[in-house]
Amino acid sequence: MKYLLLLFCLPMLLSAGEIHLVNGRLIQGDLQWHKSFVKHGDQNYDLKNLLRVDFEKPLVDNEGEYIIFSDGSMIKAQSLKLDNKMGHLLINYRETELKVDLAQVSAFSFQGAKYPPKNTLPGFLNLNDFYNAGQVSYFTRSMLGQTKPQKNRYKKSMLKFLYLKSWENSTKEFKVFTTSREIIFAKIIEVTNESLKLDTILGSVEYPLEEISAIENLSKFKALNAEQIKNISYTPFLTQCKEMTYGNSFTGSAVEVGGFATKDFWSIHSRTNFDLMVPKGGHVFSTILQLDPLVKNGNIQFLIQQNGKELINVTMAGGKEKKIRIPVKMGIINIVVDYGQGGSAGDFLLMCKPRFLLEK
Predict the structure, then answer these.
(1) 136-151 burial string, b = 16+ CB within 10 Å, else e?
(2) Spatial separation of the C-alpha atoms in residues 221 and 283, rounded to whole Å
């Protein structure tokens, strides 16, 4: 018995991974949980002082039903039954039946962990991208019902999304990613040898440490917003350059970063030129670049300058995501998404998770 107790007192080895520090440094290697800290070698790191920690773990297949809540959280769960009188939805989450307030639900994805298109009216989107506006009236394990403006029945297996309303930015401190492709905005209550206890939109929930894929500290950066973007100019290669848009791809594709759904991205067509205002305390600009998932022939030059000095110049021509993280000074940085080879055909860039890291 004493050996068993000793085993549980030792730090728990999770996996290889990465620790992202607020100063822009990246630490790679084997990571352990030690009490409420993440440990690398002899150094303990408090989650409250980190930007992000990633654990290299396989993700489940991207299929099945996911529920998206009003704070943007996305969980892998099955809707069962709607109590219209009380406004409660019965769901099966992690083999437990729970009642959730339907007013807290934003949407349902029935074909894996995906966010629906933004700015959509309440309604149903089927596998052929046919949209039918209306309100849901009942749920079963396999069906949905609609009574307004007309009566309809839908098999969940034949739907992409049921959209109820838009979601708002969460005020929670952390964003937690699980191996089930879940995204959970939360406050961390407690870390034990076996689990992470979180305060979520569902209340207090415990997640096994072995299922934690990543944790992001939302207080350590300022996400890019439209007010920071200035002096946008468009130069068509021939006849058209699409305007920058947030949260929707030009081809209507669902977008992922690192295997997880995201709506935090800007779609940009070449040639687009714009300035970004560096916020107070911002000292590093970070983003993840990729081409639109349906693009086959795009070739783009991505250039960042500040005070006439080139900070980075990369070519995007398909393939993997490219992570950008560069030091910046207070003031303005200029970004150019330019034509590469072959003009602007297919030059649909996704600038994902653009943000400024904040100094302590």
Answers:
(1) beebeeeebebeeeee
(2) 10
Structural domain span for residue 109: 66-163
How far CA 36 is from CA of 31, 33, 44, 165, in Å, comes to 13, 7, 9, 36
Return phi, psi of residue 342, to 5°.
85, 20
Q: Is residue 341 part of a domain?
A: yes
CA 182 from centroid of its chain's CA atoms: 10
Q: Which residue has the tokens 């998206």?
A: 68
- Per the CB < 8 A criterion, the answer to whether 78 and 157 are in contact is no
Residue whose C-alpha is closest to residue 47's, from 219, 166, 193, 213: 219
Q: Is residue 265 part of a domain?
A: yes
Identify whether 215 is part of a domain: yes
Per the structure, the count of domains in the chain is 3
pLDDT band at 319 (very low <50, low <70, confident <90, very high): confident
pTM reported for the whole predicted model: 0.91
Whether residue 168 is contained in a domain is answered as no
327 contacts 286 by C-beta, under 8 angstroms: no
Q: How many Cβ atoms sit within 10 Å of the Cβ of residue 249?
A: 19
Q: In this predicted model, what pLDDT tens digit does every residue of 25-69 receive, in sequence order?
A: 899 999 988 877 999 988 999 998 999 999 999 999 999 999 999
Which is nearest to 293 in space by CA: 249, 262, 235? 249
Strand partners, 357: 221, 284
Same domain, 344 and 314: yes
